[in-house]
Specification:
- The protein has about 400 residues and is α+β, with helices and mostly antiparallel strands.
- It has 3 domains: about 5-135, Helix Hairpins (Orthogonal Bundle); about 150-280, Sandwich (HSP40/DNAj peptide-binding domain); about 285-375, Urease metallochaperone UreE, N-terminal domain (HSP40/DNAj peptide-binding domain, Sandwich), CATH 2.60.260.
- The chain contains 12 helices and 15 strands.
- It has helices at about 5, 10-15, 25-35, 45-60, 65-80, 95-100, 105-110, 110-125, 155-160, 300-305, 365-375, 385-390; strands at about 85, 90-95, 150-155, 165-175, 190, 220, 235-245, 255, 275-280, 285-290, 290-300, 305-315, 315-325, 330-335, 350-355.
- A hairpin with a 5-residue loop joins β1 and β2 (about 90-95).
- The longest helix is centred in the N-terminal third of the chain and has 17 residues, at about 45-60.
Length: about 400
């Protein structure tokens, strides 16, 4: 910041106080502005953020008796019309400086050495309390809100067709006790002296926006922390949100809802909400991706002679499936388009696995028929090859 920029700032006007205001008046005025314009209470409000920063800068100067004296004297000296003039030799013409004080006897003239020292600091930018003390605070970096994790359990049918479910969440929101300041009631945080309220580390590395280690990037220090949030300005907030679970979601799938997490700070974006979905089982159907599966029992006669059987379809009318003769146990048939709707709007298939059911009991006639069948076909021992290979 140039000297002119610094001199043009009226810190008394920023705080709305007179130039002879007492320390208590300065503190009271700053607290009022800070409460009304704190960034945590007005996320994304650039004007409120600028008013807060301007008030913080003014308070930092006027609340310090040494800084305030230097500020008042420099404005009185340089702001009254005095300007350095270039001499013919190229140096600074200081005749005008001493002519002003030789006639005076003013309080400023009696402390000329201190004033000149302060002026030197202003122009040289020394760390002794000159321009560096009054540099313009860099904007506090925007901080993205935290992500939130949630879990929800839905039925098999809801996973296939999609559903809107309520998710209970615990997120971080501005503390209601301290209104997000992090300070105990009746107190206010002070501007961090290491970053001057910018929230980024001072020095050469400041251009990379490295968070200040002293204030952890907030730009403020809390001397008397709020008992509810421990000084963080954030508190846990429980709420319920209705979440739309898309059709075709899989068990243990993680759904991301952008911007539904914790609110950001200093105009930062909100975090995301991640919901892990647990899908219940179905008594008849199974699922693999977009395909559904079902096991259909066959009688021994149907498997041997062939048949046409009815097969259930999820959320639809049954279909007729032709079973060819001599179908072995465990064979799987595919019914196209009777599965789950996929992301590309196409439907998966229904996989039908047949299971041959052996009767638990036989009446005498059935037993005699099977014995006759065995004698007619005279089947070879199906286990011969098994023992040969063993």
């Amino acid at each position: 910041m140039s000297t002119k920029d610094w001199l043009d700032k009226d810190y008394y006007k920023v705080l709305g106080i007179s130039k002879d205001a007492k320390a208590a008046d300065i503190k009271k005025a700053f607290r009022k502005i800070a409460r009304e314009n704190h960034p945590d209470q007005h996320p994304g409000d650039t004007q409120a953020e600028q008013r807060f920063k301007a008030a913080s800068e003014a308070h930092d100067v006027l609340s310090d008796s040494d800084k305030r004296k230097e500020y008042d004297e420099a404005r009185s000296l340089l702001g009254s019309g005095f300007r350095f003039q270039r001499a013919a030799s190229g140096g600074a013409n200081t005749d005008d400086i001493f002519s002003r004080f030789s006639a005076g006897g003013s309080s400023v003239g009696s402390d000329l050495g201190d004033i000149l020292g302060g002026i030197g600091n202003l122009f040289m930018g020394s760390s002794g309390g000159g321009a560096s003390s009054f540099r313009r605070s860099a904007p506090q970096p925007a901080r993205r809100g935290a992500d939130i994790e949630g879990q929800v359990s839905i039925s098999f049918a809801e996973a296939v067709t999609g559903a809107t479910v309520a998710v209970n969440m615990v997120s971080a929101a501005p503390c209601q006790v301290c209104k997000g300041t992090g300070a105990k009631a009746g107190t206010m945080p002070r501007v961090c002296p290491d970053c001057s309220g910018s929230g980024v580390r001072s020095g050469a590395a400041a251009s990379s926006a490295t968070p200040c280690k002293t204030c952890l990037g907030r730009g403020l220090l809390v001397e008397e922390p709020c008992g509810a949030c421990g000084g963080s300005g954030r508190a846990k907030s429980a709420k319920t949100m209705n979440v739309r679970v898309p059709a075709g979601v899989l068990d243990a799938q993680r759904i991301r809802l952008k911007g539904k997490g914790s609110k950001g700070e200093n105009g930062g974006a909100a975090g995301d909400l991640y919901v892990t979905v647990h899908v219940g089982r179905h008594p008849v159907f199974g699922r693999s991706g977009g395909n559904l599966s079902v096991e259909v029992p066959l009688t021994y006669v149907e498997a041997v002679l062939g048949a046409e059987v009815s097969v259930p379809v999820f959320n639809g009318s049954p279909v007729r499936l032709r079973i060819p003769a001599n179908t072995p146990n465990g064979r799987t048939f595919r019914v196209r388009g009777k599965g789950v709707q996929k992301a590309n709007a196409e439907y998966g298939d229904l996989l039908v696995t047949v299971s041959v059911v052996v009767p638990e009991t036989l009446n005498p006639a059935a037993k005699a028929a099977l014995e006759k069948y065995a004698a007619v076909v005279a089947e070879p021992d199906p286990r011969v090859k098994l023992f040969e290979e063993a």
